[in-house]
UniProtKB/TrEMBL annotation:
Gene3D superfamilies membership: MetI-like (1.10.3720.10)
Annotated localization: Cell membrane
Keywords from the UniProt entry: Cell membrane, Membrane, Transmembrane, Transmembrane helix, Transport
One Pfam match: BPD_transp_1
Source species: Rhizobium tibeticum
Gene it is expressed from: potB_1
Gene Ontology CC: plasma membrane
Its membrane topology: Multi-pass membrane protein
Annotated protein name in UniProt: Spermidine/putrescine transport system permease protein
Domain ABC transmembrane type-1: 68-272
UniProt KW Cell membrane keyword: yes
Amino acid sequence: MAVSPDTRKRLITAALVAPASAWLFVFLVLPFIAIVVFAFGERAPEGGYQAAFTFAQFANLGSRAAAFKNTLVLAPIGAFVCLLVAYPVAYYLAVKASPQHRLLLVSLVVVPFWTSLLVRTYAWMYILGARGIPHLLEFIGIENVRLLNTPGAVLLGIVYGYLPLMIMPIYVSLEKLDRRLLEASADLGAKPLSTFFGITLPLSLPGVMTGVALVTILLLGEYLIPQLLGGGKVFFIGNALVDLFLQSRNWPFGSAIAVTLVVVVVIVLLVAMRVAWRVAGTRQVDLV
């Protein structure tokens, strides 16, 4: 039986997509289904999961209000500070830097990813610890300064760790900017500030929204930075999940928090996409 060209194309496409689809289903969809099932169960007497159908775990989310508050406050603030720092850097790399040095400068932005985040965070623990900056401040008469295990330390670690992820999408967006638009604006007598707010910023907003959404979503599940720089005093939802699954062994409650976190991430992504579409005037914006 002869196979039509359209059918052959569909079969080839299905064969190419099948391995990736199977991988995502096994390692993404199935675990999430298990987490949803656990979320409606009960904690077994010896810990773990016990089959049941109850909403008690979701009703108990308020007991972890501090983790939700820290996450939903520090994650957006961290993303915003990353944006404030990243945009001038990305603008310089894409618009001002010479082509001969641009590749080198972009490489320097990526270099921190060559080192483990754990090692870099431990370095900040020493810098902010008693033998670091506070010790130096004692020489000029400023004593009893505590930087480590504070929200400021966590915020600093967030900006340091996630800044490259904010710079690169903005850089890509600015690098595609048509320079003739900037020249035309200058020829028409527009001041540099007017050109920036009228042309550069609007055209780079897709990259800005991509960076903000990417950093915010990753920060919502952050565990390492609050654990090390917060010292157990500033903890995120990720820290609460580790405690519930590995220490308290309350899998249903941890699953309920995980499901809630996924819902929050989806909402953040949808809001970011809608804002990007409206501001940029197009629906062709890729956030992930």
